[in-house]
Structures are given as C-alpha cells and as structure tokens.
C-alpha cells in the first residue's frame, strides 16, 4: 500500500491508522500547490480531485476520502479494535463521529486557511468551531477516547483536525478536556511515528 500525504493535512489521520494497524506501507509526499508528488508524478492522475489523502492498494485500486480509508484499514485488522464490527450500533456511532469531524470541524477550518477569505467570514468560522469544540469537549468528559476505552479511527481524525487550531489562532486552552485528550493521543507510539514521518516533530 502507498499513502499519498501532505504533512499535517487530513492525511495524517490515515497515516496514524496505518501505524496503529501495523501495516506494511510506503508514503509519498504531495505538494498541494503544484499537485506533484515527491517523485514528480502528477498527483491528479492518482486522485483527480487533487487533494489528499489517497491510498493506492496493491491490486491497483485507489481509495480516496479519509473516513473511507480509515474504515477500510480498520476492517483489515479487526483485532486492533480501531473500529467496532460492521453492522453493530457502535459502528454507526463511529460513522456518526467521522461525519461530524468531517463536516462540522474539518470543513469549518477551510475559511481559516484561505488567504482570500474576508476577516468577517473567518470570525464566523471561529465562532462556529468554538461551539463545535464545546460539543466535543462535553462528549469526551470522563472518557479517554471518543468511543470510550478504545482508541479508534475517529480519534486519529479528531486529533489531526484539532492540531490545526495551533496554526489559525484557535488554541485549545479554553477546553481542558480537549487539551488533555490531545496530549493523551499524542503520546501513542503510532501517533509519534506518523508525526515523525511527516516531519512534524
């Protein structure tokens, strides 16, 4: 397998899951500005949308979209308990979290990374993200991970997205639960390995 990634982008989530799952894989960096990979490949020939992540499988299939990739990987290693079994109520809760992170958090940061976005738009985006952080903080109260005791693919995604606050002036300090959560996840060996591989630590 080969993961196409950009350091610190949402592709960090499947990168963490690849490490957590103990997969044999390679990783190729993508320059999102030029849409070229580090080996000179036109990335749009891999993923026509031009954004990361993409996971190229050994049989020639290419899977895109982070929530799809992480569930695929989790289902390959059920013994790692990175996702509840398909068809269970817990699995639908996991899908619920992945969708929330994708639409309410991930997309919410879009305006903050856009240099052409008006300041008024950015303030609205920050206000919305603040309310979403309140919600996640309440849900995490009293438990180590989103799904309870087990680290899941949703945690890999949430950790990735919450990191972005450092770059846009949306610090986690007002949410001690989220700050503690980030610290807990960051200490996992697989997370450390992915961060090192992307040059983030």
From TrEMBL:
Keywords: Transferase. This is Glutathione transferase GstA. Residues 1-81 form the GST N-terminal domain. SUPFAM superfamilies: GST C-terminal domain-like, Thioredoxin-like. Its EC number is 2.5.1.18. Residues 87-201 form the GST C-terminal domain. It holds the Pfam family GST_N_2. It comes from the Bacteria. The keyword Zinc does not apply. CDD domains: GST_C_Beta, GST_N_Beta. It comes from Pelomicrobium methylotrophicum.
């Amino acid at each position: 397998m080969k993961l196409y990634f950009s350091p610190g982008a949402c592709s960090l989530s499947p990168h963490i899951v690849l490490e957590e799952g103990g997969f044999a894989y390679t990783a190729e960096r993508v320059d999102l500005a030029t849409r070229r990979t580090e080996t000179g490949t036109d990335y749009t020939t891999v993923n026509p949308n031009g954004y990361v992540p993409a996971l190229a499988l050994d049989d020639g299939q290419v899977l895109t979209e982070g929530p799809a990739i992480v569930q695929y990987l989790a289902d390959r290693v059920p013994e790692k308990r990175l996702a509840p079994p398909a068809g269970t109520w817990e699995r639908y809760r996991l899908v619920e979290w992945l969708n929330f992170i994708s639409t309410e958090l991930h997309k919410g940061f879009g305006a903050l990374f856009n240099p052409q976005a008006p300041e008024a738009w950015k303030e609205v985006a920050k206000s919305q993200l603040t309310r979403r952080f309140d919600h996640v903080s309440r849900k995490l109260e009293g438990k180590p991970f989103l799904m309870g005791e087990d680290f899941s693919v949703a945690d890999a995604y949430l950790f990735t997205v919450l990191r972005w606050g450092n770059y846009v002036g949306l610090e986690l300090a007002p949410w001690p639960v989220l700050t503690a959560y980030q610290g807990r996840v960051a200490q996992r060996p697989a997370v450390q390995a992915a961060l090192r591989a992307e040059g983030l630590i």
